[in-house]
């Protein structure tokens, strides 16, 4: 527990200054797009990090699910469920920012673009993941069913990542770090926001798993007393 607290503290100490630096860079140092999107273009600096980090969160769910299938150790189910929960929150924020950006770029609040539609499917799948968990009382069955759904659902995440390249999509492709057209202040701000989001995810994940362990210990104590 002490080790996890130290990890949580370290990740928080990393995340906070990176986030602040990313916000300062976004609003004060990056150029303003004036032709079409305007100020809403600045959503990009946190929209893309949220997208990448939510994908990483669901990847942790996949790894935890596969680890549970192989080992039947419930600690992996806790990591998988905790990561999916955080990934779902990040995904909701991502969709909200995407809607705001789309309104400025395309003039509509929502369009059934392949990237947007496939990511909506991802959100619905992981919402279903928690509906499934809440509907199964047996701990073993809940972990087993969740592991199966957590594994299958990641296929939708993979499809979302490649959708703009294999389908006709109006959603922009994330710029390459080797693209010489990206100005340094834009790249550095983006990286600050990205690593800040990574650190934030790690901190929340560690503390969320710790909370699950404490909850389990409390339930065991109740059973012993009762």
Distance from first to last alpha carbon? 26 Å
- Spans of at least 5 consecutive residues whose pLDDT stays below 50 are none
Radius of gyration: 20 Å
Q: What is the string of helix and strand elements?
A: HHHHHH
The backbone outline, from C-alpha atoms, is globular
Q: How many domains in all?
A: 1
Biggest sheet overview: none
pLDDT averaged over residues: 86
Name the beta content range.
under 5%
Q: Can you count the beta strands?
A: 0
Helix content: over 70%
Which structural class do the helices and strands define?
mainly alpha
Give me the number of helical elements.
Answer: 6
Explain how this protein is built.
The protein has 226 residues and is mainly alpha-helical. It has one domain (3-169, 183-225). The chain has helices spanning 2-29, 44-71, 74-106, 114-135, 139-166, 184-225. The two termini are 26 Å apart.
